[in-house]
Amino acid sequence: MTNIAASARIHPTAIVEEGAVIGENVTIGPFCQVGPRVVLGDDVELVSHAVVTGRTDIGRGCRIFPMAVIGGVSQSLHEAGEESSLSVGEHCTMREGVTMNTGTVGGGGKTVVGSHCLFLANCHVAHDCQLGSGIIMSNNVMLAGHVHVGDRAILGGGCAVHQFTRIGRHAFIGGLSAVNYDVIPFGMLNGNPGVLGGLNVVGMTRAGIERATIHTVRRAYKDIFENEGNVRTRAAEVRETYADCPEALLVIDFITAESDRAISSPFRRKA
After folding, report:
1. What is the pTM of this model?
2. Is residue 86 within 8 Å of 101, Cβ to Cβ?
3. Residue numbers annotated as active site
C-alpha cells in the first residue's frame, strides 16, 4: 500500500507506484516516476522528469533534478536481478542526468551515499560504491563499482575512478584525471595516469586543521613517499613517530590497510 503524507505535493503528470513511501512536504514535479519500493524522506524535491526506482531510500531534504535516474539496476555484467539497494543520506543534491545504481550480491548488496553531498550534471555512482558525507563530484565524474570515497573529498569534472579504488577523506582529484590506484586522505591527484602531487593544504585549512598539524602531516608524507623502499612498509615504520597526530595516522592507517588497489604515488608508477 502506498503511504503518501498529506502534505506531499505531487504533480498530476507524475507517477507514484503502489508501495512507495512519500514523506512530509515532499514535492514531486512534472513527469517524475517513483517506484514501488522507494522511500522519499521529508522535504525531498524531485524537480521534474526524474526517476527514483529500485529499493531506494532518499534522505530528508534531498533535491533531484531532471533526467536523473536514482536506484537503477547495476550495470555489472554479473547482474542477475538479485535483491539489492541504494541508500542516500540527507540534504544531497543530484543535478541533471546523475545516475546512481543499487548494489550487487557479490559486493554486499548495497550502494551507500552519505549526507550533504553535491553531484553535478551527469555524474555516475556505480554499484556497491560507499560514499561518505560532504563530497563534491563535479560534472561527468564516473565512479566504477565498489569505489570508496571518504568525507569531504572533491572530484573534478570528468575524472574516472577505477573499480575497487579508495579515495581518502579531504582528497582532491583534478579534472579529467584517471584514478587507477588508491588516493591517500588529504592527497591531491592529477593527470592520466593520475599522479599524487602532494597534500590538499587548501582543503585542510578550510576544514579547520591547524597549521602545525598540516606541517606534521606534510613531514609524514615526505617520510613515506620521498624515501627508498615500499610505501606500505615505510608507512608502518614511521607510525610511532606520528602517534600523537591523528591526521597523520589517518594517512598511515589508510596506506597500511588491506586494499585491492596499490597506492597512488608522486611517480608515474604504482607504489
Report:
1. 0.96
2. yes
3. 127-128, 145
Distance CA 204, CA 211 (A): 9
Residues 6+ apart with CB under 8 A from 219: none
Distances (CA, A) of 67 to 43, 127, 237: 20, 19, 50
Q: Where in the chain is the domain with CATH 2.160.10.10?
A: 3-146
* Amino acid at residue number 208: G
The pLDDT tens digits of the residues spanning 209-262 come to 999 999 999 999 999 999 888 999 999 999 999 999 999 999 999 999 999 999
Pairing mode, strands 85-88 and 110-113: parallel
In this structure, what DSSP letter does residue 256 have? Answer: H
Q: Name the superfamily (CATH) of residues 3-146.
A: Hexapeptide repeat proteins (2.160.10.10)
Phi, psi (5° rounding) for residue 199? -105, 150
